[in-house]
Each structure stands twice: as C-alpha cells, then as structure tokens.
Amino acid sequence: MVSHLFFYQLVLVALVWLCLMLQWAWPSDPATVCPTTPEPPGPRPKRHHEPTPFAGLTTKPHCDACEHGSAPRPQPPSAPPPRMVPTRGRRRQVDTSRQFCPHPDCAYWGWVGWGNLRANGHPNGGPWRQLLCVACRHYFLETLGTLLHGKRMPTELIVRVIACLAEGMGIRGTARVFEVDPNTVLQWLVEAAEQLQAFSRHVLHDVRVRQVQLDELFALLSAVKDGTVSAAEAIARLERSPQWVWVAMDPESKLLLVLDVGDRTLGMAQRVVHQVVQVLAPDCAPLFLTDGFREYLTALLPHYGHWVQSPRRQAQGPAPKPRWMPLPSLLYAQVVKTVRRRRLVDVKHRVVFGSLEAVNHILAPLGWHINTAFVERINLTIRQHVAAVGRRVSTLCKGEEGLRQQLALHHVYYNFCLPHASLRQPLSQPEPTKGSGSATQWRPCTPAMAAGLTDHVWTLREVLLFRVPPWPQPVGV
Ligand SMILES: [Zn+2]
Question: Rounded to the nearest 10 degrees, how much is the dihedral formed by the CA atoms of 289, 293, 294, 295?
C-alpha cells in the first residue's frame, strides 16, 4: 500500500518535471511577433541571453532628413522695431495683442502684439474686424491667413464641420450631417490641415521632456473603390504598400510630439526621430522607449552620438580607429513582446543604451517600469478620432496625403483642445455648475497645458482663428 502511494507520487513528480522541461525547451514559433509590431522579413539574429554591449560604428550613421536639409526654423529679424504705445486718444478697447502686420515690406511684419495695429470696425457689416497697421497704413482682416478668411459659409458651420472631422467622423458622413457638398468638406480639411501643421510647428519647439515613447500603428487605408476590387485584392494591395502611423509622445504630459505617415522602414524611423529632435530643446536627451523594431537604434545614433577614441592596446602599430558611440546621456530601452497565436505570451525589457539603474532612476519616481503602454493607449485614441485609420471606410481621403491631413487635424485637436482625464488638477475650491448638478472639483487640463505650452484649454474655433506668425516670437503663445 505504502509502495503504491510512493509510486504515484514519483510519477506525479516526474510528470511535473517533464512539463517544466517542455515549457523551457520548446522551440518558439518563428512567426511569433506582436500584431502591432511585425518584424520585417529577414534572417533572425541568433539569440543571446547576455546582450553584448554596443561596440560602436566606424562611420557616422547618416540621417536623410539632416542631409537633405529640412527647412531650418525661420528666425526673427535681428533687430525688432520699437514697440508702439498709443499716447493720444482714449484707451484702446479691442485687443490686438495676438495680431501682426502681414505685409513683408513693413518693419513691423510678423511682430505679434507690437502695438502697431488699430481696430477699424467691421467692413460692410461683416463678422470680422478690420485692422490697420499704423506703420505701413495697410488694412487687413483679422482672419487673414486662416481657414475662415474669405469664406461665405457661416463660421459656426465651418468650425463644426472641422470639429466633426476631428472627432473621427468621415468626410461623407460629415457632409451629410451638415448638408454640405463632400468636396467642400474635403477642401476645408485640406486648408485646415495646412494651417494646423503650421500651428504645430509654431508651438511645438524647445519642448523639455524626460521620456519619449515611440510606436508604429498599422493603418487600414481604403485603397480600393467600393465594389470594384475584391476584399482579397484589397488585402494584397495593403500588403504591398502598408501604411503606418508613427507616433512619438511624452508619457508624462501625454503631449503628442510627432505624428507621421509612412512605411515601416529605417528611413521612416530616421525621419520620425529627426522630427522628435526638432521638437525637443537642443540639450534635452530624454529616455527613449520603443517596441522591438530594431531600426530605432540606427535612427537614434546620428542625433545622440559622438566619436570616441579608444585607448591603444599595444605600444606600436596604428592607433585604433575612433568609433561612433551613443552619448553617455542617451538612454534607450525596448519592450519586446512575443505573441503566439494572437496571444501575448512574453514581454521582455531590454536596455539598449545606458544602464538599467539610470533608466529606473527616471521611471521609479513615477512608480513606472519600462513600458510602452501610454503610446499604445494613444494609438487607440487615434483609431477613434481619425476616420481613415480606424475603419475600412471609403472616405474621400484616400491614400497617404489624405491620412496626413486628418492626422494634422488630430495632432492639434488632441494636444490643445481635448482635456485628458488623467491630467486634471484638483480645484482649491469646488466651483458651482450652471445647472443643479454637483460642484466641479477638477480643472480640465490638456497635454499642451501639462507640457507648459499654454495656460488654457483651446477651443477649435480659437485654434482655427490663430494667425500663425512667420517666425517664433520672443514669448510663447
Ligand atoms: Zn505694417
């Protein structure tokens, strides 16, 4: 009897051991990649359990965007004209402190709030005010250079149409709701996108962040017309020219730094990192967190690297060649996810540049570990707010250019107009609401407010009316 019991226990132990060994030794499926981060086809590198330290490069890695000389930021003229202070007449009632003279020949061209502008009433009883530059005696409307300039349609209608697009409605749907021609809606979107891209360039610069999370999001572009191409063909086409939305964000302020469209290639990774560098302050080297896409490593090195001369090992012979190494301040960690049969089976954290202690030094005060959760959450927001990404809809916005326009709209709307629930700040005193509801306890906060770029929640109307000056102003917006 005793021997039977012992025998069963022995068999049980043997089975458990066998299971454990199988779990450990089972060769992993070669197609185990995350659905959001498929690796490009190619030879798989040999697995190392101990990552070897980065040995450096013998040539400086290039960055296409740097070499092709992306347009440098416009600089203000060296000497500003003297500020104008009105000495005669009554106090000015109309605030012109956000306006500037649009005439390039004028000495006051582009200087915002320099006191050279006078309000001149509403010509022909129109909705917009006329302004006069007293330096060059030119008149212009306060909407000059914005989407709303010279539009016959009511302003409220245009703002609401753009708001609908920003909230993720398709172009045709928006056109039906407001009974406007779809081509008119498309035209407004194109104009708004151009203006908002300039707005983003104007406000997003010299940003200081401690972390940047990068990710790529697969976009299902409707590259097919309804009914003319089968679903199988559509998928084949998508496979031939996959579209990816590249996202770079600061997980602390939730600020969207860069939103771009392109393939999942090294060139595109370089372009995105280049744009991130343009947005950040020159001396700001944040902790970069990405998925396992290996091209990020090559993309980060041109901007965050330097030549290192390693010491001689022998007294004779040529000195060792200098090597291009990451800056000591550069911290970069990856979150490598393994998915098997659509199930997440393993998450590995890999510190690529810097030490785990240095990375944890940044993350630990926030109670965080190495993660890319925040940028993955933003991907969901983008899917909800950008019609062309979220659904296989047949919008008028086909192809890359259309997606770019919708993303330009979403970029500003998300950063400046949408209060983020996790950023809200408690009010020192609850404020009563207009209705019979309970008092407000919180002050809404947008990512741009959290990043210190602005002090209030912008309305879309305010954004669309903002005249982007030709160069960065001495004080922020
Ligand atoms: Zn002027």
Answer: -90
